[in-house]
């Protein structure tokens, strides 16, 4: 799935020679992640991830992502650390692509999410939000509310192939999201893509947050809303209030929510559902059905959107 | 590319608990190999390959493959060793598929083949052929000459889409291969798929032979012929006699060729070219062009076939 750029032995050896990581003894393409090319790089002493950044990641954003990981790791957040070469540089080029080596984190992402996983996630996310407070760089969220109408318009001509009436329903929702989207909520650096495959555990202990390539500057509660959608629904699309309660209460034990954040949560959850619905819809319509990649179902997020539309208030997420 | 079967945490932990390999601390799908699902499995102490055997591998052949690796490794051939569980069993089931854990070999396959790599290959292949002499099991080569006509017939109705006149040329060649295919040459266990991505090196030192899932009982010289095709042609399809000479002379320093083998080599090389041409042709015609897998060009093997048709004798491969 994920090897887009093949690296020749000579190129790899020349690249690795820029670092103090020892001789490379293995290098295997990893079939995870759909944005970049990732290799698991083994040296005599340790394992690393070698990432070649592909076209969906903007090259000018890479210094933000790498500096953020370094900042968070230095603040005690378990995340990969960009490895610097002897010249002090972490970002260089390999096989024609921007590339970096980052440290390897032990742990596995949970294929079956439990309430305990959600608690670990909430705690780590709150700590990450606080650790980002003194991070100097900023990056606007280019997949927030202002991007959704152009995204919808790009899919609209064929969206009703996926489900009759879909465009009308989304236009109506988008009108409301645009009119009511909050401003002035507490914010800073958010991950913006904290799905289970970006969070590692050993047993129920969280060991790592990875894949910061959607990280940006936005409301903290929007990051929480992304996680409500990604972690607290069951495969049949039913909402699991126990998981949400564990996630939110573990979060607020580290960083409490303001009243405005709590009140905004249902709308932010609708917005987050809209964001993933729209990017999945676009990919669905623009990926051949017989391609050897798993297309993610946009309608999963329609079900989530409808759930949040019916929410009476933050109490429906298990909050007291 | 290569993760067909997802393994849940619970299933993986239950599976790993059957072994004395320690706690699993990471498990990443590998984007190499197109037949099976491979994970790189990390424990506290070591790395392993976890393979789930997918539908293209016949389940009844698995004991042959696993026993062969164990036999060869015990004879000093650098190849993966199937790890046995506490019950003494190496082959069990995981997520509905037959599955095994094998040892991890250091090294990388050469993206750019040098004559020194060819020498290492020749030496290791000869030693592997000799080491297989006292292996008790046998498996017929189900992709040898008897399989080629049905394979050609399966592709024939659309083969001329790939190149005009292709079917006629292949039918004529196949008539000759069937009429002249040798018998009685020295044989035993062969690998049958020793392409560069199945041979690991550190620098120019060979460190491993992997992927024994086409291994079978056939002529040793047929294995050599496969390698002449897979290692001794340049990207422009020209034959590199230096690489062939290094491969063949390193082989015969370990196990010399009989006169009959030498004389049969051009025909065996044509047969090997036919075998890969036909399977690639079939896959080409039956894989959607927009699928996210790299289809291998069948016409590369047409160029190789034509080269061997024009060979005057084994001397054209650099042999004295």
Topology, please?
Two copies of one chain form a homodimer.
Chain A: H1 9-16, E1 24-29, E2 37-43, E3 47-52, H2 62-74, E4 92-94, E5 97-103, H3 115-131, H4 145-162, H5 166-180, E6 187-190, E7 199-202, E8 205-209, E9 216-219, H6 220-231, H7 241-254, H8 259-286, H9 298-309
Antiparallel strand pairs in A: 1-2, 2-3, 3-5, 4-5, 6-9, 7-8
Helix pairs in contact in A: 3-6, 3-7, 4-5, 4-8, 5-8, 6-8, 8-9
List its salient traits.
homodimer; 320 residues; alpha+beta; Phosphorylase Kinase, domain 1; Aminoglycoside 3'-phosphotransferase, Chain: A, domain 2; five-stranded antiparallel beta sheet; 43% helix; 14% strand
Describe the structure.
2 copies of one chain form a homodimer. Chain A contains 9 helices and 9 strands. Chain A has 320 residues and is of the alpha+beta class. In chain A, strands 1-2-3-5-4 form a 5-stranded antiparallel beta sheet, covered by helices on one side. A two-stranded antiparallel sheet of chain A has the order 6-9. Chain A has a two-stranded antiparallel sheet with strand order 7-8. In chain A, a hairpin with a 7-residue loop joins β1 and β2. In chain A, α3 (115-131) packs parallel to α7 (241-254) and α8 packs antiparallel against α9. Chain A is globular. The N and C termini of chain A lie far apart (43 Å). The model of chain A has no long low-confidence stretch (mean pLDDT 94). Chain A binds chain B through residues 1-3, 6-10, 12, 23-32, 40, 42, 47, 104, 106-108, 110-112, 202, 288, 290-293, and chain B through 1-3, 6-10, 12, 23-32, 40, 42, 47, 104, 106-108, 110-112, 202, 288, 290-293.
């Amino acid at each position: 799935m994920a090897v887009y750029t093949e690296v020749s032995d000579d190129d790899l050896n020349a690249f690795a020679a820029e670092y103090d990581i020892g001789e490379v003894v293995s290098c295997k393409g990893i079939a995870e992640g759909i944005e970049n090319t990732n290799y698991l790089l083994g040296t005599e002493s340790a394992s690393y991830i070698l990432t070649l950044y592909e076209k969906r990641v903007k090259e000018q954003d890479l210094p933000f992502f790498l500096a953020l990981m370094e900042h968070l790791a230095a603040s005690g957040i378990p995340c990969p650390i960009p490895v610097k070469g002897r010249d002090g540089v972490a970002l260089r080029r390999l096989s024609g692509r921007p590339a970096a080596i980052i440290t390897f984190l032990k742990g596995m992402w949970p294929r079956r999410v439990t309430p305990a996983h959600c608690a670990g996630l909430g705690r780590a996310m709150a700590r990450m939000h606080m650790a980002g407070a003194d991070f100097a760089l900023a990056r606007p969220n280019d997949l927030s509310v202002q991007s959704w109408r152009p995204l919808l318009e790009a899919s609209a001509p064929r969206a009703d192939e996926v489900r009759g009436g879909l465009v009308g329903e989304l236009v109506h929702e988008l009108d409301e999201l645009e009119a009511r989207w909050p401003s002035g909520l507490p914010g800073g650096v958010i991950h913006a893509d904290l799905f289970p495959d970006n969070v590692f555990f050993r047993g129920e202990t969280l060991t790592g947050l990875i894949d910061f390539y959607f990280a940006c500057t936005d409301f903290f509660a929007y990051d929480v809303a992304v996680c409500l959608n990604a972690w607290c629904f069951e495969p049949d699309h039913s909402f699991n209030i126990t998981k949400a309660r564990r996630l939110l209460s573990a979060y607020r034990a580290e960083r409490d929510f303001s009243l405005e954040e709590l009140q905004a949560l249902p709308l932010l959850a609708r917005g987050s559902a809209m964001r993933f619905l729209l990017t999945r819809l676009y990919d669905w319509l623009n990926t051949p059905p017989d391609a050897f990649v798993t297309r993610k179902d946009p309608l999963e997020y329609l079900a989530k959107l409808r759930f949040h539309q019916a929410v009476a208030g933050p109490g429906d997420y298990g909050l007291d």
